[in-house]
Amino acid sequence: MVHARTARRPARLRGVLAPVLTPFTRDLRPDVRRFVEHARWLLDSGAGLAIFGTNSEAASLTVDERIELTDALLAAGVPAARMIPGTGCCAIADTVRLSAHAVGAGAAGVLMLPPFYYKGVGDEGLFAYYSEVIERVADERLAMYLYHIPAMSGVSISMQLIERLLKRYPGVVAGAKDSSGDWDNTQRMIRGFASSGFDVFPASEMLLSRALPIGAAGCISATVNINPAAIHAVYAADAARREPLQAGIDAVRRIVQARPMIPAMKHVLARFGGHADWAVVRPPLEAFGADPGRELVQQLLDVGFGMPGLPAVPGAREAAAT
After folding, report:
1. Which of 54, 87, 95, 223 is catalytic?
2. 169 is annotated as an active-site residue
3. C-alpha to C-alpha distance for 216 and 43, rounded to whole angstroms
4. Residues with Cβ < 8 Å from 215, sequence gap 6 or more?
5. 145 is catalytic
């Protein structure tokens, strides 16, 4: 393996990370100002930034839009070391361009979907894809996190593939987000590879209390977007204090995941922040209607949910409760 650039790799990013929601204007353009505001609030609440994940509507963003939004965060002083951008695309050249940009900016790593259009591909094809990306990026600073989400991608990342990639690219293949929804699979990843420096992030905060004691690195979870401080508190707590805190974040997660999660979380941000445009999603997703939105907010309020420190227009929190 040839590396054209040799610089020190950034420190590993552990803890709770949000696949940062992407705000849009009414004409469906990314709203840069609100994107930066949201990222800062997440950081201030203890979360890291997995920008351009599934819940970021990354599949509905162009490569240029992702780069422009990343640059906007950097220009606003958001530290690259707190970011793991999603860079996986079907086209190798797009993945390389996004990954090289992230590495050059000093990001802590990149979260890489497998190529997801062709189904039924085997480990040999996936190894060739990841290998080609690593060789073309050609930078010792690259820290690649595999994104295992077979329900959406239709492509499975096997234990055998992880083992082979770790053997061929030690240090470069840094970890995985396991969105399989299968606790047994998550356990196998952690128990099989964490001791070799492979950081595993479950995709739901509901697994934190089970995953942390066996070596998980934290979680990369959709609902960190709306409940970051409470989820970070579970990650940071000692074992004796973790159980009651876990119950609180589980209650919020159950309410939100019972709905289409991206429109649901955007509706919550619109209500609690007082910015109606937060509810905008790019087609083919559909925004929440008024009645289901009221029910969602009321259920959250009933379990004591709040969004401390969220930038909001005057009266927004009071309005959310009506």
Report:
1. 54
2. no
3. 21
4. 190, 191, 194, 195, 200
5. no
Summarize pLDDT for 107-116 with one digit per residue, the tens: 999 999 999 9
Whether residue 235 lies in the annotated active site? no
> Which DSSP category does 28 fall into?
S
The span from the CA of 233 to the CA of 169, in Å, is 34
How confident is the model over 188-235, as pLDDT tens digits?
999 999 999 999 999 999 999 999 999 999 999 999 999 999 999 999
Cα separation of 20 and 53, whole Å?
A: 7
62 catalytic per annotation = no
Cα maximum dimension of the chain: 60
Distance of alpha carbon 109 from alpha carbon 84, whole angstroms: 5
Q: What is the pTM of this model?
A: 0.94
3-state secondary structure of 120: coil
| Strand spans (E) along the chain | 15-18, 48-49, 110-112, 144-148, 173-178, 199-202, 218-220
Rounded Cα distance between 102 and 109, Å, is 8
β-bridge partners, 220: 17
Order of strands across the sheet that contains 110-112: 110-112, 144-148, 173-178, 199-202
Mean pLDDT of 282-293: 94
Which one-letter amino acid corresponds to residue 22? T
**Vertex 232 angle, CA 75 and 237, to 5°:** 145
**Cβ(59)–Cβ(25) under 8 Å?**
no
